[in-house]
Amino acid sequence: MPRRLALLSLAAFAVVPCAQAAQPQSWRLEGAGAFLEGEIQGLAVDSDGHVSLAPAVQAMFDPEMPNAWCLTRDAKGRLYLGTGNDGRVFRLEGTRARLLYDANELEVHALAVAPDGRLHVGTSPDGAVYAVDEDGGAKLLFDPEEKYIWALAFEPKGDLYVATGGQGRIYRVGRDGRSEVVLTTADTHVLSLALDPRGRLYAGTAPEGILYRLDATTKPFVVLDSAFREIKALAAAADGSIWAAVVDGGAKEAPRLPAVPVPPSVTTSPVAEVTVTESFAVLPPAGGLPAMVGAEPPVPKAPKGAVLRIGPDGDVDTLWTSTESVPHALLGPTEEGVLVGTGNKGHVYRLRKDRTWSLVATLAAEQVTALADGDEGTTWLASSNPARVFSLGAAAGKEGTLVSRPKDAETASTWGRIGWEGSAPPGTAVRLETRSGNTASPDDTWSSWSTPLTAAEGAPVSSPRARYLQIRLTLSGAEGRSPVVDALEAAYLQRNLRPIVDAITVHPPGEAFQKPIPVSGDPEILGLESEPAADRAATARAGAGAPPATAYSRKLYQKGVRTFSWKADDPNGDPLVYDVSYRGAGETKWRPLRRRLSDPVLAWDTLNVSNGRYQIRVVASDAPGNPPALALTGERESASFEVDNTPPSLLASLLPGRGHRIHATARDDASAIRLLEFSVDAGRWEVVHPLDGISDSREESYEFSIALESGSGPHVVVLRAFDQLGNAATARVDVP
């Protein structure tokens, strides 16, 4: 019976007595996206996040070329491979391979075997189709004006459909080489062809991503105007549905121009022309392959590729989509689904109609470009960069590995226990190895892989203390049985780092902020000491509170209040409390102002201190998350600011013998005079500039005349002077 293995509790982690944060953290690898970020060999990962042994992959042939574009098999079970950049065709029989045909063109993008067993080869970039015999002798069958031959497909009667690029046409070519244009699309390239069980031809195009259907009379119908630029591969199912591998989502240009008219053909057969004027289907947002762990951008990425299923009734179902992988080839569908070859990690997926999927193979190449059925459940795979041919077996392999992405603990850390969740049938095994280092990418400076941990209950990590950790998971099977791993988890303890107080903002005099949710009927000022000391201590013990609400709280004016807010951060993520102290200009001693604040904001009622210049100091402590002996602090001093709660003095009088001219003197002991204004008989206030032209001193003199109508008196002139802190003084002058 399989054993269900539970991951060990992180509470069992042993704390090493050094300067570290008090609480361990957990690095958990769980879910398909997290596992697919690693380097996988011989393992399968399904959409539910289960990791198990994959079908065995065996390298069969190396043509010593960069690209392998296409595969096909004949009735005798022989496999044919088309390559680039030398335009060669190889024939594989069992473990033997031979060069069958070397074309004059650079690329062989299409292969098809005729009902009579002859191999047909489509070449590019000079666009020709050759019939190749058993001994490699080639006969030019068809030479269109287009430069690219992208796909070939034989109908049961023996005629050959040829998909071309340059003018986006499909030709039907007879065994005698006579040809006719059966479709001129509104697109540049016809990339893919497929015949369904009813003999209808499906064709996918680029760069507008349109799927056409042609019936026996070659009448065209647009089945799908996709949201992708390329329909790269097609597969027809027995139930009448069509599976399509599509590439490059979210990059189409609109609107399209009508189809290019078909030039005169070399035959008198009917020709179909298509003008696309509306969209027949719009792809919905799709799920599928989970986004990779890491940075998730604010704007969702457009998918690089997807696999769609177009049902017999025309409904479009998006079965799989990825922002990382590009589908290149399809095989099937069968009862188990369809195989999809992708790049640029050499992955092969099996997709099912219920939107579940499995990664079934990872090749030692960048792209999986072609797939073909083999005998007894074997599948043939062709890759590019480099070109290779592989066989994918039906049974699970004996061993596979997954090397995780490195975990960045952000600081040198001590590693705790590591374990896994899943099941291991008798005779199977799960091994975990770790290594650590202080560079983001593993290199020669990293430690060696540790001794494998085989105990079912997990064990402490033996890798050295460092910033980065990597895990290697190895699964071993027996008699077709495979262990299954659902999650990996490792504990670590960061070195405690000092909190950082990034900046202190000194708000204008009298500016205060109302608490977002007042507890009483009266407005409560954020950061102003009003709660009992016992309540403040309880708040501090609760840890770091929410950031100050100054960004969205309603502003108030409160005479004598100076509000300060600051931004602080703890690299370990520990909760913070703050001690605030102050000192006067020229003083060296800091006096406590408030202790163990949980919010980074303070409103100070300065009416109980003398006028003058002051500074505050904020000390942030991570004590709530650490034992007293290990707690650390960080601090910052504010810019100096003025405290002045005393209004200036103001003297004013009429100048003798100068009519209605008034002289005034404003003086302040603490700050400069900012403004003088006057009002006549309770009229509007008018500003007066000082005699020296600028308000920048603690004493300023003013002279000004008032315009009065003769005989209209007496009048009352009220003067008002303000200092820099907003304190005001008034004076009155009676004008007879």
Looking at the overall shape, the CATH architecture of one domain is Sandwich
Outline type: elongated
Which radius of gyration do the C-alpha atoms yield?
40 Å
Low-confidence segments, ≥5 residues, pLDDT <50?
A: 1-20, 254-297, 531-547
Average of pLDDT: 86
Could you tell me the number of beta strands? Answer: 56
Task: Give the biggest beta sheet.
Answer: 9 strands, antiparallel
Can you give the helix content as a percent range? under 10%
CATH class of one domain: Mainly Beta
CATH homologous superfamily designation of one domain: Immunoglobulins
Account of the protein in words:
With 736 residues, the chain is mainly beta. Among the domains are: 3-16 and 23-54 and 400-494, Jelly Rolls, CATH 2.60.120; 500-643, Immunoglobulin-like, CATH 2.60.40.10; 649-735, Immunoglobulin-like (Sandwich). 2% of the residues lie in helices and 50% in strands. The chain has two helices and 56 strands. The strands form 13 sheets. Strands 1, 2, 3, 34, 35, 36, 37, 38 and 39 form a nine-stranded antiparallel sheet that branches. Strands 5-4-30-29-28-27 form a six-stranded antiparallel sheet. Mean pLDDT is 86; it is low at 1-20, 254-297 and 531-547.
